[in-house]
Amino acid sequence: MRMSARKIVSTELFQPVTVQSQTTRLDLGANALTFRKNGIEFRTNEPIPAWTEMTVSLQTPGDTKRFNCTGVIVACTGSRHTGYSVSMVFTNLSRQAQLRLHNLAYSPLA
Question: Rounded to an integer, what distance in angstroms lies between the CA atom of residue 48 and that of residue 84?
Fold first, then answer.
């Protein structure tokens, strides 16, 4: 399997992104994400166990509605001194969510 990455460099592309599970909630700035074809990577100060299911809530500036993507944490590396790099793979994306994510990932603003 091959994954491609695209760093979101425009803070205007996304409103703040919320990543949450039953026990964790993170509010991330748009510049805190690395967008992948089938997921995201982000940094956090607290570790998140592998296989934790989380929901990502996204909203673009031209859109009034947020949309959610569910995924699982597949890797969390780092330490409490340097922070943690977390990789999340999306699962069960609707066709509409796949299209929106694809358009965002390859937007000329990214």
Answer: 8
pLDDT digits (tens, 9 = 90+) for 23-68: 778 888 767 787 777 888 999 888 999 999 998 887 766 667 777 8
- Strand (E) or helix (H) holding 95: helix 95-105
Q: What is the DSSP letter of 100?
A: H
Find out whether 42 and 94 touch, Cβ atoms under 8 Å.
Answer: no
Q: Residues 56, 36: contact at Cβ < 8 Å?
A: no
- Beta carbons within 8 Å of 53's beta carbon, 6+ residues apart: 21, 70, 71, 72
Residue with tokens 């607290």: 46
pTM: 0.72
Question: How many angstroms separate the CA atoms of 45 and 51, rounded?
Answer: 18
